[in-house]
Amino acid sequence: MASIHIADRCLCCGGEQLSAFPAVLMPFVAHRALGWQPVRIAEDWQMAHLQTGIAYSVCNTLYCRDCHFVFLDMRFDGEAMANLYRDYRGDEYVALRDHYEPGYAQRNAGLLDGMGYVDKVEDFIGGVAPGIATVLDYGGDTGINSPFRHRAEVFVYDISGCEVVDGARRLSRDELRRGAYDLIVLSNVLEHDPDPERLLREVCRYMDGGTHLYLEVPAEQLFMRFGEGWTPRGTSIIGTSTSTFSPGRRCSACWRGAAWRR
Ligand SMILES: [Zn+2]
């Protein structure tokens, strides 16, 4: 059965100086990952001390006062993650998410075509690491957004199990090899993982001295205002992300904590 761990220290720096802000777990995530559905507390429940209305799963947004990292206190285990990302953006996933987040199906149709800036990513990587011939897109879903898909050998590892697009090849975890890739891509993955430090250590295991790592996380404007008179209210996550990184010290704190301790 899927389960959760409640974080009591910072996922990035290990600090214990955390501020907690009450929130609710997005109902799509609660339902798909954990099987928890909202309930309507009705008059006929005859609960003497509860108000009627819809009850969602409560959680906390945590803020590390040491390194400024912001994250959901609920950390999913492997089974919950498998539930959440199985057949990612497939029919069943989309139908359930559209039920809780009307309009998602339409948004998803656009997402399936790709993120639209792969050429910019390739230009950036090519500028510092020319001659990329082998790529591992870790958490790359179908490979639709994998850089260099049309001119390099591209492998995808992802827990979604989705079919990969032409030009990419899916690898199982057992097939991942140290030093077999000129480039490892970790794009829009770190913020979804229950333990980003562990994930960075895992990815580093497949690198050697000649491997480049491309790391990309969303720049969530909303959360960047944290500490400037704004604090999170309501939901603690955006989409299915359970952490929010911003450029600079939050991400680098995580990186310093994990990558070079391998
Ligand atoms: Zn911290």
Q: Which helices and strands occur, and which strands form pairs?
A:
Blueprint: E1 4-6, E2 18-24, H1 27-34, E3 39-41, E4 53-55, E5 58-64, E6 70-72, E7 74-76, H2 78-85, H3 91-100, H4 104-111, H5 118-128, E8 134-138, E9 153-157, E10 168-170, E11 183-187, H6 196-204, E12 212-216, H7 221-224, E13 234-235, E14 243-244, H8 249-258
Parallel strand pairs: 2-13, 8-9, 8-11, 9-10, 11-12
Antiparallel strand pairs: 1-7, 2-5, 3-4, 5-6, 6-14
Overview of the molecule:
- This protein has about 260 residues and is an alpha/beta fold.
- The protein has a single domain, classed as Rossmann fold (3-Layer(aba) Sandwich), CATH 3.40.50.
- Helix content is about 25%, strand content about 20%.
- The strands form 4 sheets. A 5-stranded mixed β-sheet has the order 13-2-5-6-14, with no helix packed on it. Strands 10-9-8-11-12 form a 5-stranded parallel β-sheet, with no helix packed on it.
- Helix 6 (about 195-205) links the parallel strand 11 (about 185) and strand 12 (about 210-215).
- Helix 1 (about 25-35) crosses helix 3 (about 90-100).
- Zinc ion binds near residues 12, 13, 15, 66 and 69.
- InterPro entries: SAM-dependent_MTases_sf.
- This is Methyltransferase type 11 domain-containing protein.
- It holds the Pfam family Methyltransf_23.
